[in-house]
Amino acid sequence: MLQRRKFIKQTTAAATAGLLLSKNANAFFQLKDIPPIGLQLFTFFGIIDEDVPGTLKRIADTGYKEIESAFSKKGGYYGMNAAAFKSLIESLGMAWRSHHVLGAPFKMPPGAKMPTDAKGQPLKIPPMRNLKENMQELVDEVAAVGLPFLVCANTPISTMEDIKSSIEVLHKTGEACKKAGIQFCYHNHDAEFKMVDGKVPYEMMLNELDKDTVKFELDLAWAIKGGVNPVDLFNHYPGRFPLWHVKDLDASRENIMPVGEGTLDFKPIFAAASTAGMQHFFVEHDMPKDAYASIKSSIANLKKMLA
């Protein structure tokens, strides 16, 4: 395992040296069994609630076969219960694989801007259930419809007290999911790779949470922005990353791009999919200017990349 200081030093050095982004690594891409390309519906946050069936049909028509859902302005599962949402997804020829929930009551990070709708108006976000307060009912709902994965989308990690409390919530949720026959995962941003009181939150989670009870959905781009080489993570923690988020970044690492239109080279990452234990991956683009154009470009580029 990586020691805390070594964790930052090695992964940052790898990213800085360009090991991850080297175009020469393409020759090592040999993934044979590629799961269907999925989509995280947060890409359509603020849009999908205007026409849920119509939005999902356009997503299906674009070629996406698997869906990971997120929170909705309408509450529940885009204004539906879990069974109705699953039925709608399947009627369009897609499979519902995973659902995102919050780890704690929602709070806007300091200095962050409230997301806006298509007209540029701040979104009115209703109260959202979370694992700290509503864990069992959230687990029970997805278990009742046979959903394979439940994912914590984010959780407080600003202080050591936050981290320890969040790890306890993740542990309890993992145990509840295990009893219900669901795999629980944690999804990262870049903040998890920044030291808090000399420790790396993400490494604490990897080391302190049971490797079978709590696995991880690695957001590849956020990890890279955090200075980490995903392939290094896979090698040091094999089999712990059954889910991935795939988005691209520009050279500044500040702007999200459709997959294939930024600067990240995903081929060496996909070549390590078996080491990671990857079962499903989902395209995601946070707050794109044109969500439909973004997902169309991403799937076309991915198909070429994975051919």
TrEMBL record:
Residues 57-303 form the Xylose isomerase-like TIM barrel domain. The keyword Signal applies. Keywords: Isomerase, Signal. It comes from the Bacteria. This is Sugar phosphate isomerase/epimerase. One of its GO terms (molecular function) is isomerase activity. PANTHER family: HYDROXYPYRUVATE ISOMERASE, INOSOSE DEHYDRATASE. Residues 1-27 form the signal peptide. It comes from Parafilimonas terrae.
